[in-house]
Amino acid sequence: MHKTSDRSFSDFALHLHTNSIGPIIIAQRLLQVCSPLVPSKLVFISSDSGSAGDFQGHEDGFAAYGASKAALNQMLRHMALELKRKGGPEADVCILAIHPGTVQT
């Protein structure tokens, strides 16, 4: 189990690249490539571990994962608002962040 205070920069960066930065870059590229055929929905896999409003205090060892999902959720909020403000076909894009449930691994 990894304590937050013991996490290395590279471990934290790996979580951010995998769960936040990568999905956002893919969405940006999809919106660029698909124009003018803008997708109607962009669906992202998030987690309740990234919820700012429903902190799961029993998830010891998941700080980097939770922080990366919280970053994704916040980026998606901004992306949805920016697309609405932009207008045109992109204003109708639905941004979804779903929590598929807990998986035993």
From TrEMBL:
GO molecular function, one term: oxidoreductase activity, acting on the CH-OH group of donors, NAD or NADP as acceptor
SUPFAM superfamilies: NAD(P)-binding Rossmann-fold domains
Identification of the protein by name: Uncharacterized protein
Cross-referenced InterPro entries: NAD(P)-bd_dom_sf (IPR036291), Sc_DH/Rdtase_CS (IPR020904), SDR_enzymes (IPR052184), SDR_fam (IPR002347)
Gene3D superfamilies (alphabetical): NAD(P)-binding Rossmann-like Domain
PROSITE patterns linked to this entry: ADH_SHORT
Keyword set, alphabetical order: NADP
Coiled coil spans: none
